[in-house]
């Protein structure tokens, strides 16, 4: 069972006075539950993040790459096809969990998140995917299994990274995977309408690092409101205003300094609206 983590507000400066923001947890919870996400409070801030309820575990689920094939597309591009192997996990099945009714959920069921170069992911409901890249280029593909409501499976073996290059002649070459810390953006993504705006899933995939209170962390900035997450657990973004929402993820070290390297910071813009059409 996934432990619940509580977020304890910090000091808030508003109207020239310093006040302590109240906390909804009971004294017993405060005494027994460690804080694994902290927030930097700004005046009149409404946005908050809360850990998701416990999700079904798929401890034996595994994703691997069976093979990679390429086909030239003209003189300047190559179509790459990745064939996956999925073990102990059923694609297209609805995840049996209350959370599926609390946030945006795919009617097509469980799937694979395919992330090319930390761009917005493609949801794969079949274990194969084709995409086109230019010749003389290098790429990173992060793929991981996802529940129907887009929460990633974080157990060992449920995700796989592929680094490859296409040379100037269009030939494919698998490269050694990096050994530096990385973070891949998953959710939120796209447009959210109506009830889907109440609980907006915040989820990401970390690679080559373990988050902890004494080690690396993820700094999340949502419309200028900063949160620090010290354990790899998904969150709900709540109380977000309608309109454009900017989300930025940054890997930071134990001293709060930004970690340098490939895929250590990424941001997205998503849209929230009470009803269609989106404005």
Strand/helix succession:
EEEHEEEEEEEEEEEEEEEEEE
Q: Helical stretch count?
A: 1
Largest sheet: 7 strands, mixed
- Pairing-aware structural class of the strands and helices? mainly beta
Assembly state of the chains shown = single chain
For the secondary structure, the number of strands is 21
Question: How much strand?
Answer: over 45%
* Radius of gyration, whole Å: 20 Å
Mean of pLDDT: 87
Distance between the termini: 40 Å
Tell me the strand order in the biggest sheet. Answer: 1-4-18-17-20-21-15
Query: Helical proportion?
Result: under 10%
Shape: globular
Low-confidence regions: 1-35, 40-44
Question: What's the gist of this structure?
Answer:
This protein is 2% helix and 48% strand. It has one helix and 21 strands.
Reconstruct the topology from this structure.
Blueprint: E1 6-8, E2 11-14, E3 17-20, H1 27-32, E4 35-40, E5 48-51, E6 62-73, E7 77-87, E8 111-116, E9 122-124, E10 128-134, E11 137-146, E12 159-166, E13 172-175, E14 182-187, E15 191-193, E16 200-207, E17 217-222, E18 225-229, E19 235-238, E20 243-252, E21 265-273
Parallel strand pairs: 1-4, 15-21
Antiparallel strand pairs: 2-3, 4-18, 5-19, 6-7, 7-10, 8-9, 8-11, 11-12, 12-13, 14-16, 16-19, 17-18, 17-20, 20-21
